[in-house]
Amino acid sequence: MKTDNRITVAITGASGAPYALRLLQCLLDQDQQVLLLISSAARVVLATEQDMQIPASPEKAAAMLREYFSVDAEQLKVYGKEEWFSPVASGSAAPAKMVVCPCSTSTLSAIAHGSSNTLIERAADVVMKERGQLILVPRESPLSTIHLQNMLQLSQQGVTIMPAAPGFYHQPESIDDLIDFMVARILDHLGLEQRLVNRWGYGKES
User: Is 38 in contact with 80 (CB distance < 8 Å)?
Assistant: First the structure.
């Protein structure tokens, strides 16, 4: 698989598991090779919001998710929070693009301050230092001054802050339509094709 088809996706403990699963499905459908990181809190949220019990073992989680998305081991790889020898931990091997969806405000804070205590934080730090593309999808309300300051700091360093705030101009008829709105915006920013939602000013696509 070509290197430029690789992308790191991290799921953290903010509400918004349906966004993560839909994004993964769309990326895999476009033959992207996904290097997936799942925090412990994210597993709790996935169980709560999607009734999906993700095993703590990266190997078992990978097997479960490959079956769920009907993809092979080459297309979807899962790494544990302390797998420091994984490709995402080094600028010489990590994909140039990373999305944290959803992104908890604690993860956002850690990334803003370069903590790198977990593989998710380190992977984000690598993408930033290598001048890659990092997209964070926070889902929190209201936002405190600390949250806003962290977002501003990251934005000033070239990170895209894309709050999970779906629009309504596409006249959504279901929760899935709202989910697709956000995923479509993420795909747009990644430079990937999307037919999930019509763009502003355009009619329904056939």
Answer: no
Q: Is this structure's pTM higher than 0.85?
A: yes
**At residue 65, does pLDDT exceed 50?**
yes
Residue span of the structural domain in which 147 resides: 6-190
**Each residue's pLDDT tens digit, 66-111:** 999 999 999 999 999 989 999 999 999 999 999 999 999 999 999 9
Binding residues for dimethylallyl phosphate: 169, 185
Residue 167 lies in a domain: yes
Residue (of 192, 202, 203, 197) closest to 28 by Cα position: 192
According to DSSP, residue 198 is labeled P
Total structural domains in the chain? 1
Can you say which residues are annotated as belonging to the binding site for FMN? 13-15, 39, 104-107, 139
Residue at 121 is within a domain? yes
Enumerate the H helices of 113-144 as residue ranges: 119-129
Phi-psi category of residue 119: left, alpha or beta, with phi > 0 → left and psi -120 to 50 → alpha:
alpha
SS3 41: helix
- Output the known binding site: 13-15, 39, 104-107, 139, 169, 185
CATH number for the domain including 181? 3.40.50.1950
User: Which of 61, 76, 73, 64 lies closest to 29, judged by CA?
Assistant: 76
